[in-house]
Design the sequence.
């Protein structure tokens, strides 16, 4: 009964910035888009730090009070906090068990958790840490939750970046490898491992990987987009009707951009993820494994002016 009467959405890394804005945006849009509806929406705000996650939940409850969208105010949305460390397999499995026992399925998984560190000293350590959180952890969270994502109709969204476009690889060979329609999930791991080995040897630039302060971040976002595409192909081959997409939130004012970006998380930053989480299936039936920005499908093989790897202001 609970699984049919309740929609469940999970947002990782949601105690601040874009993640928190996505939770708020979904709560408001769900009530606006479904007047008179009776299906409850449970939104899980997750964070590694319990104190910060609890504070974010309290802030959202206060901010949304005037909108009367929360169950406590007579609405249909319930926001819950769960402590989740995305780089800890045991933490992920514990959370999945809680969800499975209470709701059986989830409708949308939004992989927002990520980090950005400037690639100056201790390069291998920074590269490993960045890839561990932004790629390997995302892959593990998705893998563990995949069996309980609703089929048909479930959705997986990865928060990406325009920095993850293929032209930010100077090597045509690497571009072709990532763009290969036959590339498997294991094949992506092999490419990521090559990058880390090249960093260790000090040859990553000559091998065609991104140069500059944002190199590991760029590679993590390229791998993330590639993961969405490969996973969507794998799911289609299995006959599963689950959408997997990447969302670029744009140049957003968060701690990753030193708050120097022009756009606020609660406007442009959360809009496309909110749209893809709630929109009718027919509105996104143009394909799977796609790269989205501003509610539009973008090519990850085309260079955009704002996607320069030489400017670390464009972390998002």
Sequence:
């Amino acid at each position: 009964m609970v699984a049919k009467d309740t929609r469940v959405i999970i947002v990782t890394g949601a105690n601040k910035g874009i993640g928190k804005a996505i939770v708020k945006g979904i709560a408001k849009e769900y009530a606006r888009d479904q007047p008179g509806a009776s299906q409850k929406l449970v939104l899980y705000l997750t964070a590694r730090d319990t104190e910060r996650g609890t504070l974010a939940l309290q802030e959202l409850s206060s901010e949304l009070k005037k909108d009367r969208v929360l169950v406590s105010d007579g609405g249909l949305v319930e926001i819950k906090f769960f402590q989740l460390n995305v780089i800890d397999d045991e933490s992920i499995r514990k959370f999945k068990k809680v969800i499975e026992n209470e709701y059986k399925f989830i409708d949308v998984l939004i992989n927002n958790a990520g980090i950005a560190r400037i690639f100056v000293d201790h390069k291998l350590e920074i590269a490993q840490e960045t890839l561990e959180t932004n790629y390997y952890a995302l892959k593990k969270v998705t893998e563990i939750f995949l069996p309980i994502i609703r089929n048909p109709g479930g959705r997986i969204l990865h928060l990406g970046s325009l920095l993850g476009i293929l032209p930010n690889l100077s090597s045509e060979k690497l571009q072709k490898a990532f763009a290969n329609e036959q590339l498997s999930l294991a094949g992506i791991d092999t490419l990521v491992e090559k990058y880390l080995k090249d960093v260790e040897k000090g040859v990553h630039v000559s091998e065609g990987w991104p140069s500059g302060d944002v190199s590991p971040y760029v590679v993590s976002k390229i791998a993330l987009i590639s993961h969405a595409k490969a996973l969507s192909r794998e799911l289609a081959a299995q006959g599963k009707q689950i959408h997997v997409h990447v969302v670029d939130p744009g140049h957003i004012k968060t701690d990753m951009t030193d708050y120097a970006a022009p756009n606020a998380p609660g406007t442009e930053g959360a809009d496309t993820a909110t749209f893809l989480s709630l929109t009718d299936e027919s509105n996104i039936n143009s394909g799977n494994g796609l790269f989205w920005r501003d509610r539009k499908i973008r090519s990850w093989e085309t260079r955009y002016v704002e996607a320069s790897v030489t400017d670390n202001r464009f972390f998002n």
In short: The beta strands are 6-11, 40-47, 77-83, 108-111, 155-159, 243-247, 291-293, 296-298. The chain has nine helices and eight strands. The longest strand covers residues 40-47.
